Every structure is written in C-alpha cells, then in structure tokens.
Amino acid sequence: MKDPAHRCRDIERQAGYLQPEHCAPPPPRTLPDTMWFIRDGCGIACSIITWLLVFYAEFVVVFVMLLPSKSLAYSLVNGALFNGLAFLALASHFRAMCTDPGAVPKGNATKEFIESLQLKPGQVVYKCPKCCSIKPDRAHHCSVCKRCIRKMDHHCPWVNNCVGENNQKYFVLFTMYIALISLHALIMVAFHFMFCFEEDWTKCSTFSPPATVILLILLCFEGLLFLIFTSVMFGTQVHSICTDETGIEQLKKEERRWAKKTKWMNMKVVFGHPFSIAWLSPFAAPDHGKADPYQYVV
C-alpha cells in the first residue's frame, strides 16, 4: 500500500524501475581529507557578505567604541568577549561551509552495487533519478549541491552548503554565536550612546560626530537584524533536533518511519556522545558513538 507521502517522494520504490543500465559508473572517490566546497555563485557571494558584516562589526566595536573608552578594564573585557565570540562564529561558519553535509555517493545505482546489496524478496531500495544514486532513508536531493544529502534539513546560501547529518552542529553553533555577538554589540552601542550624550561627542570617538552616529546606527541595524534572524534559526534548529525531524520532513509531512528517541539522545546524536564542553567548539567533530547508520534497504 502506498500513501500520499510516499508518492510525493523523489524516488522510485520498485527495483524493476531502477534501470541500473542507465547509470554511468560512479566517479572515483575523493580522499577523506579533501575539502568540501560548493561552487555556487549566490552562495559564495552570501558567504563573503557574512564575513564582511562580521568584520564591519569588529571595526566599529574596536575602533569606535572600545579604544576611545576611558576605562581600560571595560575595553579589555568587552574586547576579549566580542572578539572571542566573533572568532568562534567565523570558525563555525567555515566548518559548516567546508564540511561534507552527508553526501550520498553519486552514480552508485549500478548493476554491480545493486547486486552487492543481496536484496531479498519484498525488500525495496531508493533511487534518486536526478543524481543516479541508491540512497538511504531520510536522504533528499539538493538541486544546488547536485547530490543527495543524508538527513538534509535545508540548503543555506549563507554558509554555501546544505545543512545535513555531518555539519548540523556547526550550523547551530554559527547561528548561536552570531546571535550572541549581535546582542553584545547592541548592548555596547546603547552604553556608548549614553556615554556620548553625557560627554562631549568629540571626546567619545576618534571619528567626527556625524561619522560616529552613522557607524553606530548601521551597527545597531545590522545587530538587530541578525539577532532576530539567527535567534529564530537557532530555535528552529534546536526544535528540529529535539523532535528528530528535519525541515524538509516537516514541510513534506513525511511519514515517520524511524525509531523515536528522547530529546536528550537526539541532541547527543548531533553534538556527540557524551555531553562535554566540546559541544560548544567548532573545532571538535561530533562523536556519534553507537548511532545506528542509515540503511539503504528497507
């Protein structure tokens, strides 16, 4: 029996329609240490803009607000905090952009591979007609990456990559750290405006008063916009992780065919086993422990 959710999937469910003879041999496997990078003009432009906006915030915070401050302790504490969070945000962005999100081998729907699965009567395999790959359950095809991605949540142009099984941790950290530096920048802008109103505007900044106001207003607008956007995205991602349902699965309302786990276990599947301070580090690859691999055959 086929339900509407199955009919809407981009797969062919019967082995007779797989047509392995139409698939070219898969390309040679890339080395494990080969960097993953999507050559998409829009994504590359958005990634560059993201870094430039962070550098702009860095410039305003350091040269407009902290260096002119009369309190050395205030400048050191806030400078270290903001620069630390900004560094973690950019590192998370880089890892999310250059980490394989969980791409299924392209072009593996060959006769030899299908025979190696040793299918039993009644077993079904999934084939993507777009990239000619036999793919595991919960994998979806990305038209930008031109690959099927395991546990794909969505394609994000701001990181020029899909958010999937292998890089969701870095994407969540990126949204969290961007939200934190945006909030921190807004708080410092508020304090700096109060300081400038109390003191002479010519003494509260090394720039002219009009330039100082323009720079602060632009930073305020940028911080407010990114605080709202990344906070919503962070909350959405955490909810998706806790419910173990990707954004695409929620959008398509796909039937749940995987084992239900606790919210804490779902968090450990993404961030690693067991809980540690490494959850907050973009340099620590998540250890998935004994997480069950996705199978090709159902």
From TrEMBL:
Membrane topology note: Multi-pass membrane protein
Spell out where the chain crosses the membrane. Answer: 44-66, 72-91, 170-195, 207-229
Q: Is Secreted given among the entry's keywords?
A: no
Superkingdom of origin: Eukaryota
Where does the record place it? Membrane
Q: Which GO terms describe its molecular function?
A: protein-cysteine S-palmitoyltransferase activity
Where it mainly occurs, coarsely classed, is membrane
Provide the catalytic activity annotation.
Answer: L-cysteinyl-[protein] + hexadecanoyl-CoA = S-hexadecanoyl-L-cysteinyl-[protein] + CoA
Its top-level enzyme class, in one word, is: transferase
Q: Which UniProt keywords apply?
A: Acyltransferase, Membrane, Transferase, Transmembrane, Transmembrane helix
Query: Pfam families in the record, alphabetically?
Result: DHHC (PF01529)
Question: Is the keyword Isomerase in the record?
Answer: no
Tell me the ranges covered by the Palmitoyltransferase DHHC domain, including all copies. Answer: 127-253
- As recorded in UniProt, its EC number(s) are 2.3.1.225
An example Gene Ontology CC term for this record = membrane
Q: Which family does it belong to?
A: Belongs to the DHHC palmitoyltransferase family.
Return the domain comment text from this UniProt entry: The DHHC domain is required for palmitoyltransferase activity.
Protein's name in the database: Palmitoyltransferase
Q: Which gene encodes it?
A: ZDHHC3
